[in-house]
Amino acid sequence: MSAGWFRRRFLPGEPLPAPRPPGPHASPVPYRRPRFLRGSSSSPGAADASRRPDSRPVRSPARGRTLPWNAGYAEIINAEKSEFNEDQAACGKLCIRRCEFGAEEEWLTLCPEEFLTGHYWALFDGHGGPAAAILAANTLHSCLRRQLEAVVEGLVATQPPMHLNGRCICPSDPQFVEEKGIRAEDLVIGALESAFQECDEVIGRELEASGQMGGCTALVAVSLQGKLYMANAGDSRAILVRRDEIRPLSFEFTPETERQRIQQLAFVYPELLAGEFTRLEFPRRLKGDDLGQKVLFRDHHMSGWSYKRVEKSDLKYPLIHGQGRQARLLGTLAVSRGLGDHQLRVLDTNIQLKPFLLSVPQLELQEDDVVVMATDGLWDVLSNEQVAWLVRSFLPGNQEDPHRFSKLAQMLIHSTQGKEDSLTEEGQVSYDDVSVFVIPLHSQGQESSDH
Amino acid sequence: MSAGWFRRRFLPGEPLPAPRPPGPHASPVPYRRPRFLRGSSSSPGAADASRRPDSRPVRSPARGRTLPWNAGYAEIINAEKSEFNEDQAACGKLCIRRCEFGAEEEWLTLCPEEFLTGHYWALFDGHGGPAAAILAANTLHSCLRRQLEAVVEGLVATQPPMHLNGRCICPSDPQFVEEKGIRAEDLVIGALESAFQECDEVIGRELEASGQMGGCTALVAVSLQGKLYMANAGDSRAILVRRDEIRPLSFEFTPETERQRIQQLAFVYPELLAGEFTRLEFPRRLKGDDLGQKVLFRDHHMSGWSYKRVEKSDLKYPLIHGQGRQARLLGTLAVSRGLGDHQLRVLDTNIQLKPFLLSVPQLELQEDDVVVMATDGLWDVLSNEQVAWLVRSFLPGNQEDPHRFSKLAQMLIHSTQGKEDSLTEEGQVSYDDVSVFVIPLHSQGQESSDH
Prior knowledge:
Oligomer: homodimer
Number of strands of chain A: 18
Largest interface: A-B, 59 and 59 residues
Mean pLDDT of chain A: 75
Helix content of chain A: 10-25%
Largest sheet of chain A: 7 strands, antiparallel
Number of helices of chain A: 10
Low-confidence stretches of chain A: 1-75, 102-112, 443-451
Radius of gyration of chain A: 23 Å
C-alpha cells in the first residue's frame, strides 16, 4: 500500500486536515524471525530452505533481502524503499493438528502429529511504520492455524456436521446443512475470515501496549486439500496466469472502490464525522465561489452522478477525496480494509479512522496454475497483462531450472526498478516497496502430496 | 415477489414472530390509470396503443388483463393471482423537456416541446396488498422524468460540466470531471437512483396519509439515447437473450443475497433488534437441546462458516431465517430492497423492517438484443436457460408477425400455468402473480429513432 501519510498529494492552496505525525514509529519494532509453526523443527515435513534444491532463499541482486524463513517452493523478493521495510511477508507449511474431545466435551489432548498439511503465503504492506506489518507477519498464520484446528473434524468430514462432536440432535440436521450448501471449503473460508478478525485484535492490543501505531494491508494465499484460498484486505493484488487467460484473484479495497459502503456508514452515523467532513463526493473540493451553483455530486445511494446546489456545509473537507492512487479516506488513508490502525485519528481532531476501516477480507477459491501476489509497488507500474506476458514469456524456456520461480520474481521486481529490460511505459519506476510471490500451483500441489 | 405475509412456511412447532396483519389492505387503493406523461395526449409522439399494428394491448386468454396504457412495442401479460393484483406495471414514452435558466439562475420556463425522448418499462410486485405497487406504477416515471429534466443540459453535453449552467469557476474543472470518468450515462444512472429514493418517500407519505400499508419491489428498464438502463430493487429479474449468450441484467436482493449487509447493520446498531432476534445465522433455528453444543454459524464478517458453542441468546429467533424462497428478514419479508413498508413492524413488537430494507436500486447498462423482464412468479418455475430457449425457439419462425413479442410473453406465462406446452419440470405451476415484459432492443431502437 502506498503510505497515505507520506505520499499524499495536495491540491494547490488546500488546507488539509492531516493525521497525527508518525512519532512513535521513529523507533519501530525490530524485525523478528517469524515463529511460524509451533514445533515445526521437530516435524518431519517441515521445510528447511537450505535442504531443498528448489528452495534456496534468494537475495535480490538489486536491493532485496533474504527471507529468514520460507517453505521452499515460492520466493519472495523485496525491493525495500526504507530501512525498516513496510512490506513484510511470511510463507511456510501450515501444520494442522487434530484435537480430541473428552467426556466433558472439553479439549483433552492435542495430538503431537500433524493431521492436515497446507501451505501459506502472506504479504503485509504497512503504513505509519512497519510495526503492524511485522506483527501481522508474526501472528496471522498462528491465528489461522488455531481457527483451522478448532474445526478440523468438520474439514475432513464428507459434509461438515451441524454439531462439531458429530451428535445429531435433530434428525434432519444433515438436511439443513445440505440445504444451506455448506461444504468443507466454507470452514476454511470461515477460518480465514475469523483469523483476520483475531489478528486485528491482537495487533490492536500489542500496539497499544507498546505505545506504537500503524496498520497494514493483508493478502493471504492458503493451499489446503488441493485448493487455493485467497484472502485480501487492502490494495495488494493476486492474479492467476493461465496459458490463455489472466484472472484477478483479489479485488482492491480503497476509499474509491468502497465509496458507497463508507458514505453509507457516515449517513447512518453522521456523528462519526464530527461536523468536520462532508459525506458527499464532488469532482473536486468545493470553494466559496461554488456557493449557490449547481455542481456534480453523488451520495451513498448513487453509483451515478447528479447535480446539487452548493450549500455552506458542502465546502467541508470530503470524507473521500482525490483520484485513483491519490484517493484518501478522511484525508488520511489510501486503503479501506486492513489490519491495525486502532488508534489512528485525523490530525487535531478526535475523528477515528477505524470505524470506516474493515478488517474483513474478501475470499476467492481457486484450483490451478500460476499465482502472482504482489504489493502495490508492482501494480503501480506494471499492468496485469504485462505481468502475465512476463510470466508466459519466461517460464516455457526455463522448465528445467529449479530456481525459475525465484528468477521470475526477480525479473518482475527489476521491471519496476527502471532496468534496461523494463517493460514499463517510458521507463516508469516504482519508488514504493515492492514484494512479489510467484506460486506455481501444479508443482506446489505435487509437493503437498509428498507429505 | 412472493408475499412474505401470506406464503411463509414454518418449521414444525416453531413460535414465530409475525408481522402485523394486513388489515388496512382489505380495502386496497383502487386501480388507477397511470397518468404517465403530463400532456402526452397532445404530444405528437405519444403512443396510442390502438394506432399501431405492432402495439395492440393483449388480454391473456388465460386470465390476463389489458394494460390501460403502453408504449406499443412491448407487451405485458399478467396472470393475476388475486382480485386486486399485487403485480403492477407501467410502460410508455418518456418525454423529457428542456429547462431554461433566468438571470437569477432559477428555472424560468419549461419548453412545451419534448427535448429528449426515451422509453420506460417497470414492474412492481407488491406485498401486504397492492397499494404500494399501484402508487409506484403511478409515480416512479414522474419522479424519473423530473430527475432527468433537472440534469438535461448535462445529458446532451459532450461531457457533463462541473457546473450545470456551464460556467467554469476553476479552470481545471473539465479535467476534474474527466479524471472522475463522469459520462452522460452516469447522469441517467444518478437520475434513476434519485427517482427510486424520491418515489419511496412519496409512497411513504401517501400510504400514511391514507392509513394504508405495504411495499413493493421495482424493476425498471429505461431506453435513452440508444442505451438501455436496468434498475432493480427486489426479486424480479431481467435477462438479456442473445443468439448464443444469456446475460442476467439484474441481481436479486433477498435476505439471503444481502445477509452480510443486514447482519452488519444489526452489528453496528444492535438496538434495532430490541433483544428479540439473534444476528447470527445457523443452519436451522436452535432449541434448548443445542445449548452448550458447538454448532455451525456465521456472522456479518463471514462468507464462510465456523462453529460456536451455543449460548442462551443464540436460541432467539434469527434476523434472517429460512432457505431459498422461504428465507425471511425478521420473520416477515422475503426481499431486502424495494419501495414502501415505512410502517411495517414485526407483529407484537416495535421492531421496524425499514432500516434493513433499502430503496437503493442496482444499475446495469446495456446496448442490445432482447430483454425479458418478469416478476418472481416466472422465475420460480422457469430457469434463465428455459426462458432463453423459449425466446430463441419462438422468434426466428415469427419474424413477420407484428404481435410476436406479445405472443412470446403469453407463451412464457402459459409455461408457468401448467399448460400442455409447459417447459417446467414435472408440470410445475406458479401460484404467484406472473408479469412479463419482452423488449426487443433493436426494433425499439429503430422506433426511437423515428421521433
